[in-house]
């Protein structure tokens, strides 16, 4: 960050630590901060500190929430016999946009990734097992990403819960996207499309 005054260089360095923010974007954001009004800057600072101060993990599903338990876990209208297992809170938001699934969720807080130092002990698996023992759950829907890490996590969880007799364990289907062309699909997508084919 040579050539910049230290406060700007420090800000650029901190912004550059955020995922997806390269040096040019960090520079652009830092100079944008300089042009913000005092009120706009205070609102940004308040939003940043508020994320850490006002949010906590739901003790049931491990999703981020302002109230405990979260509004989904506390909703008696939702189907408490189904839990959809996801890796990240962003996945919950994506699935909720469908407006068709009315069960509960469980957020693992990541996926098994030895290269990143994330093993089963770093995930919210103990909380999941406690729910399966305590609640009348009949279906566990595994909705981890179809990456190598997501698949490994899905297989690990499926083995972990296989002794729950009345529990059906399902996996979200993977395959060709709607409107996708076969010629542009990669091999793994085509393999998944064949594996998860169904009668029509």
The total count of strands amounts to 6
The helix tally amounts to 8
Supply Rg. 21 Å
Class based on secondary structure composition and strand pairing: alpha/beta
| Main β-sheet, spatial strand arrangement | 4-3-5-6
**Number of domains in the coordinates?**
2
Terminal CA distance reads: 60 Å
Mean pLDDT: 91
Please report the first level of CATH classification, the CATH class of the largest domain. Answer: Alpha Beta
Biggest sheet features: 4 strands, parallel
Q: Might you state the CATH topology name of the largest domain?
A: Dna Topoisomerase Vi A Subunit, Chain: A, domain 2
pLDDT < 50 runs, ≥5 residues: none
Report the sheet-strand fraction: 5-15%
CATH architecture title of the largest domain: 3-Layer(aba) Sandwich
Helix content: 40-55%
Indicate the overall shape.
Answer: globular
Output the helix-strand order: HHHEEHEHEHEHEH
Q: Brief description of this entry?
A:
The chain has 200 residues and is α/β, with parallel strands linked by helices. Helices cover 42% and strands 12% of the residues.
């Amino acid at each position: 960050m040579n050539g910049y005054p230290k406060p700007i260089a420090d800000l650029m360095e901190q912004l550059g630590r955020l995922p997806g923010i390269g040096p040019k974007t960090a520079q652009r954001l830092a100079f944008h901060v300089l042009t913000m009004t005092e009120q706009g800057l205070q609102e940004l600072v308040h939003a940043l500190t508020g994320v850490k101060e006002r949010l906590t993990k739901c003790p049931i599903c491990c999703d981020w929430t302002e109230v405990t338990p979260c509004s989904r876990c506390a909703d008696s209208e939702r189907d408490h016999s189904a839990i959809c297992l996801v890796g990240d809170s962003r996945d919950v938001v994506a699935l909720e946009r469908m407006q068709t699934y009315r069960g509960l969720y469980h957020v693992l807080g990541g996926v098994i990734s030895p290269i990143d130092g994330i093993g089963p002990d770093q995930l919210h698996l103990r909380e999941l097992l406690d729910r399966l023992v305590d609640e009348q759950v009949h279906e566990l829907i595994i909705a981890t990403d179809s990456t190598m890490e997501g698949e490994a996590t899905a297989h690990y969880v499926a083995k972990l819960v296989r002794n729950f007799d009345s529990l059906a364990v399902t996996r979200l289907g993977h395959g060709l996207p709607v409107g996708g062309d076969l010629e542009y699909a990669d091999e793994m997508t085509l393999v998944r499309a064949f594996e998860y084919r169904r009668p029509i």
